[in-house]
Write a structure and sequence with these properties.
alpha+beta, 4 helices, 20% helix, Ubiquitin-like (UB roll), CAP-Gly_domain, five-stranded antiparallel β-sheet, alpha-tubulin binding, 241 residues, 2 domains
Length: 241
Amino acid sequence: MEPLQINSGEDYVKVNISNSKNDSIALDLKFAKSLTVGQLKCKLEIITGGNAATMQLELYNGDRLVTKLQDDAILVGALPIETGMRIHVIDNFNWIVDVEKFELTDEQYETKQDTVRNFLKKNRMGKYNEEEARQKEEKLQKQKQLEQERAELCHIGGRCQVTVPGNPVRRGTVRYNGQIEGKKGIFIGVEYDEPLGKNNGSVDGKCYFSCAPNYGGFVPPTAVEVGDFPPEDTGLEEDEI
């Protein structure tokens, strides 16, 4: 029999792992395509708490079953597996003995090293990625604080310059400062000097200020700089035909 060939592409694949015993555990796992299915099962033991000898693996693409990983000797790379797919672990291991159930207290479980909880903590995965969550929260709070500080500078009637990525720098006058119904955060309503806006001061039929069509726009406070910004000279005479 000819040896199985590993599918072309990257040497590693990243898939989502789901578990029939605990629907709340769903992790992303990266592993080498050179592993056999049997070796992969051994690695999944510590993550799922299952037993490699009795577990069954199924490969899914979304909700569609691609194949069942039934041959422990086959290489993962020989399977039709791609990054983004999901491996579902079915654990058929059951103890059927008449003994008193053994349970650990939460404090005892916390001291053990070979547990799913300890694995997640060490690898900063799932809900235990506290540092990343803390950094995201700090970034969000700093962004909110910056928006509040910039919004306080945007006085109604003040001249301003608006800079939004992907758009030309525009000048105009602050006409609104506050919230917009159905949207989060603070918005600054600007009446532009030229028809470079998207509305007439209204959003979804609600008027926040009035101006000519296409002269109005609403942008975040961080996009607005208030100061001495007189209307730019276009070089065109008003009576030019």
